[in-house]
Design a protein that fits this description.
Layout (H helix, E strand, L loop, with lengths): L1 H37 L10 H21 L46 E4 L2 E7 L5 E5 H87 L17 H7 L4 E2 L16 E2 L3
Antiparallel strand pairs: 1-2, 2-3, 4-5
Helix pairs in contact: 1-2
Organism: Arthrobacter alpinus
InterPro entries: Excalibur_Ca-bd_domain
Pfam families: Excalibur (PF05901)
């Protein structure tokens, strides 16, 4: 507080009453706001917030009054330099007018593309312009335009040829791809048919083998169930050298359908051997 009072005392002679009033109002407002916000006594020793609020109001009024009492600042006068009269001698010189550029007027109508005529020192060529109209044109400009159109035509022809080649290549690639796809499909179909045929053949072979195995098993079962048949043993027919042996064996007479009969023992050929 003592510092603020010292500042106010020092500022009074230099700032005048209005300036001093403004400084005092600022001091009062700041001190009162401190007490109003914190609730503590400020440098002015305001005991309550109500007193601080009143001090804020007084300080604002004093601040406004001091501001209105401050002297208005006038702009410094601007020095205006006196006008100086300058008399300058103006020297005029005659400037020759440029000579007109000679213009060549072609009275003949341009009919044939490429036709050329000479006017003075310049050659003109009948050329088709951008509007497809035959006009007379300087030889240099005509050559440039013709060369430009030739280049454009060459580029266009190349573009068309490239597009045609690209389209042909695309068509060839598509046809080749379709051919490869068709061949692949045919190969897969043939493989599938071959696999199906092999599977069917294997199934048929298995079926036949199963039938044969079943038949064999059935035959074996029948053989096991049937009684055993003794094989026939062929007994050789007895041989008698003469009828005496046959009679001694007790088999005489021997008929033709009996064992031991032979034509050598049947003398009368009546079908009965050793009957006498």
């Amino acid at each position: 507080m003592a510092l603020w009072l010292l500042v106010l005392i020092i500022a009074l002679p230099s700032a005048g009453f209005s300036g001093w009033l403004v400084l005092f109002a600022l001091f009062l407002v700041i001190s009162a706001l401190y007490s109003l916000i914190t609730g503590r006594p400020s440098w002015l020793g305001l005991p309550r917030r109500k007193s601080a609020g009143a001090a804020v109001g007084v300080g604002l009024v004093a601040l406004i009054a001091g501001g209105m009492m401050l002297p208005a600042t006038e702009p410094a006068p601007t020095a205006i330099a006196p006008f100086a009269e300058v008399n300058a001698a103006v020297t005029t010189s005659a400037t020759p007018s440029p000579s007109p550029t000679p213009q060549y007027v072609l009275l003949e109508k341009c009919l044939d593309d490429g036709e050329s005529v000479v006017e003075g020192s310049e050659t003109f060529v009948c050329t088709l312009d951008d509007a497809d109209v035959l006009v007379w044109m300087g030889e240099g400009d005509s050559q440039k335009l013709v060369a430009q159109r030739a280049e454009e035509k060459r580029v266009e022809v190349k573009r068309v040829a490239d597009e045609k080649a690209a389209a042909q290549k695309a068509a060839n690639d598509k046809a080749a791809a379709q051919k490869v796809a068709a061949e692949k499909a045919a190969t897969e179909k043939a493989a599938a048919q071959e696999a199906a045929a092999a599977k069917a053949a294997a199934a048929e072979t298995a079926r036949v083998a199963a039938e044969q195995a079943a038949q064999k098993a059935a035959q074996q079962a029948e053989q096991e169930q049937a009684p055993a048949i003794q094989p026939l043993v062929e007994v050789p027919a007895p041989y008698y050298a003469n009828c005496a042996e046959a009679k001694a064996a007790g088999v005489a007479p021997i008929y033709q359908n009996q064992p031991g009969y032979r034509a050598g023992l049947d003398r009368d050929k009546d079908g009965i051997a050793c009957d006498k």
